[in-house]
Design brief:
CATH architecture of the largest domain: 3-Layer(aba) Sandwich
Number of strands: 9
Number of helices: 11
């Protein structure tokens, strides 16, 4: 009889759990969702987040509010989400820095691979190698020669340790085997402002931040880091065309939730992301910025988890060889 009571109790508990899960799934979301972007407002990752959040809000029937929590190469914002209540109402949109910070930072407030639930990949943004408009070299080969000959004076701007521009700049210096003078800023905006003003020489940044300036002729473009030329910048050669063999890098973005977020919420968010990435407005705006939405098969938890694991392994030796770490 005691065994029977135990079985009946477990059955009843399971029924309550299943009923609660079904009720949660049916009602979620019931209020505003916060999407944390771990970088300053107006930057390239913020632009991606706001486009996706707007479309997902329509599908979910609840607003997604973007909150910018910048600092420490994106780790402050990521840490905020890792420590948030796992109820489906706080998510993180982060880029490749989610993977590189695992090596860049000796101490993190969270375990990169195990502190989050995975929602899906959003987009993979190409990078551009750009310079102040009056820099002397006319093509990438000339720029490489110029950087090597003037390595003690050429300045390379970035948006801070862990930012996409920092990572690309580090990879560029590794590719040409030449250390350059790096100038870190507190965000992409001020870095671009000084590049436009001629206070710094070079930057390697996302098309979402450079396309309009390239098209307007206010900065000089030397290469894109995609496998092929971009429709939005047809006259800009690839880095490989310009002489940098195998220099291909994209700044992929993904959405995460705190560990322990109900699977029903994660699944609903993933489905909503897939809807958003097919939204005509999102597709069109991404195209204008030189990128494209991730395919549906990549806008899934499994795809994002696999991407993060692979990218941590890929960047670890690059960062260790450069010796650029942060506490």
């Amino acid at each position: 009889m005691k065994t029977l009571k135990t079985v009946l109790g477990l059955t009843a508990a399971l029924a309550v759990t299943l009923s609660s899960a079904a009720a949660f799934a049916a009602g979620y979301p019931e209020r505003t969702i916060t999407m944390v972007v771990p970088f300053a407002a107006g930057g390239p990752t913020d632009t991606v987040a706001r486009l996706v959040a707007e479309s997902m809000s329509k599908d979910l029937g609840q607003q997604i509010v973007v909150e910018n929590v910048g600092g420490a190469g994106g780790t402050l914002g990521a840490g905020r989400v890792a420590a948030a209540e796992p109820d489906g109402y706080t998510v993180l949109l982060h880029h490749i820095g989610m993977a590189t910070s695992a090596t860049l930072y000796r101490k993190l407030a969270y375990d990169t691979l195990n502190a989050f639930e995975y929602v899906g990949l959003v987009t993979d943004v190409p990078m551009t190698i750009v310079a102040r408009k009056d820099l002397e070299p006319t093509d990438l080969k000339g720029l490489i020669d110029y950087m090597k000959a003037n390595k003690d004076t050429v300045t390379v701007a970035n948006a801070g340790i862990g930012a996409a521009s920092h990572l690309c700049g580090m990879l560029l210096m590794s590719a040409i085997d030449t250390p350059l003078v790096t100038v870190p800023y507190k965000g992409t905006g001020p870095a671009m402002t000084d590049l436009l003003g001629g206070q710094v020489d070079i930057m390697c940044d996302q098309t979402t931040n450079t396309t309009k300036q390239i098209q307007g002729g206010t900065i000089k473009a030397y290469a894109v880091t995609s496998p092929a030329r971009l429709d939005v910048l047809p006259d800009v050669p690839t880095a490989v065309e310009g002489g940098l063999a195998d220099f291909q890098v994209g700044i992929w973005h993904g959405i995460y939730a705190p560990k322990g977020t109900p699977s029903e919420a994660v699944e609903r968010l993933s489905k909503s992301l897939q809807v958003a990435l097919k939204d005509e407005n999102v597709v069109a705006r991404f195209a204008e910025l030189g990128t494209a939405p991730s395919p549906e098969a990549d806008a899934t938890p499994a795809a994002l988890k696999a991407k993060l694991e692979g990218e941590i392994a890929r960047w670890k030796p690059v960062i260790e060889a450069a010796g650029q770490f942060a506490d």
